[in-house]
Amino acid sequence: MDTEKVESKNFLEVKIENDLANGVNDGRVLTRFPPEPNGYLHIGHAKSICVNFGLAQKFGGKTNLRFDDTNPVKEDTEYVESIKKDIKWLGFEWEGEELYASDYFDQLYAMAVQLIEKGLAYVDDSTSEEIAAHKGSPTVPGKPTPNRSRSIEENLDLFARMKAGEFPDGAKVLRAKIDLSSPNMHLRDPLMYRILRAHHHRTGDDWVIYPMYDFAHGQSDSIEGITHSICTLEFENHRPLYDWFIEKLEIFPSKQTEFARLNLNYTVMSKRRLRQLVEEGHVNGWDDPRMPTISAFRRRGYSPASIRNFAQKVGVARRDNVIDMALLEFSVREDLNKVSSRVMGVLDPVKLVITNFPEGKEELLSIENNPEDPESGSREVPFSRELYIERGDFMEDPPKKFFRLGPGKNVRLKGAYILHCEDFSKDENGEISEIRCTYYEDSKSGSDTSGVKAKGTLHWVSIPHAVKVEVRNYDRLFSAEFPMADPEKDFKEFINPNSLEVLTEVYVEPALQSAKVGEHYQFMRKGYYCLDPDATENHLVFNRTVGLRDSWAKKHGKK
Hints:
This protein is an alpha/beta fold.
């Protein structure tokens, strides 16, 4: 019996394999990623990037990066640069220089003229309301507007005058002449061009008419010779129009194929709504670590590998579904567990004094950097008489199965000694202010000959050597699993008021004084953290990337 693992292929891989086997496109594979530069990319785009670039890599092909910059009102070079940065950070490179739909404005205009000359496009003076009314509904055929019967000569003249700027914004549009009775509303004489006086980030004020996405999309693919135009499912009903333009223009037959977009719970996956959150001040910019943008994930400490692995786990489906946010967190945790240095940080400190440890004495203890990586080595951590431990690791009257610290109980300090709790003090508010313990001198980790038992192990920080830092703990931005499920409610009503917790009295071991942006740390027993880009030498700020609790793995029976 053959026990070799058989690779499972998704339907896009099967399609490309069949095309290659049949000599379609002379064996070429050229995909494209066509973002509109009107916002920052989110995790849904990350999946699309992984699909488009990943397929090209697998089959020895290439991928174009082409910006769909056909709406200058919402577009900006800031978004262009952020998109390029995100793609490279994820580990992908596009073919040659980045491309733009605006590179093809002259060719697209010439193609529109060709369709007019064939009697397949016309200039319409109707308002947007009149056009919508004339289109009918999916069950009611549309009716022609009075301008649909204009002559080819008149349409050519009017379109040229539109381009020349003779008419005000919105006064006229160019429409394809297809089928007003089609059950597909996208084929009911769709708009191809509109008049729009807006400064373009690349072409300046050269153009006052701009192509609609449905017209620019397929023709740009064809100009570039894209062999596999892979889109998400919301463009499935647009495909007949994509094919119609290519057929009527008799140009390179790029083919569109759709796959399910990525939908996550506890967030929103719309650039328009994400922009609302930014512009209305609900978050601190596009890279706020609570946002689902790639730049936010980078700032929060997600690794590129974890996002690529997440996209692979989600897979490529034909129908939309909702992915549990916990799967993304599992993927992040799975990768960071391999690459993160283990360090000690006390988030809610209480003072502990080892009464029989000599005053003024200091030791350097060797602690492993990462038990998952044998090559990571170890570091020396200073130890002294006075320490910080977590307030939650001590109880005045602990229950039987509390394996941490309490009066008369033993506990081991990570990489150090076993302590025995003698007594404690409280402040005027009744809060524990100091814990006093003794240590077993011959119980040092790695050379313990004491014979003393301790069931629990605590992390700690030496007070004389402690570095004070700020920690930002992030939770999910929305408290509702589906914040847009109820059309009667504003999705912003479900913003989680506890999505950000700022801790200013946190103490970490001195090794973190030299922490760098992009490095990953596991604060022992607390979670995964990273240095925030805004941190300074005198004000270190750490963001929590993800907690240690693995709810997705537990739910799905993973170890």
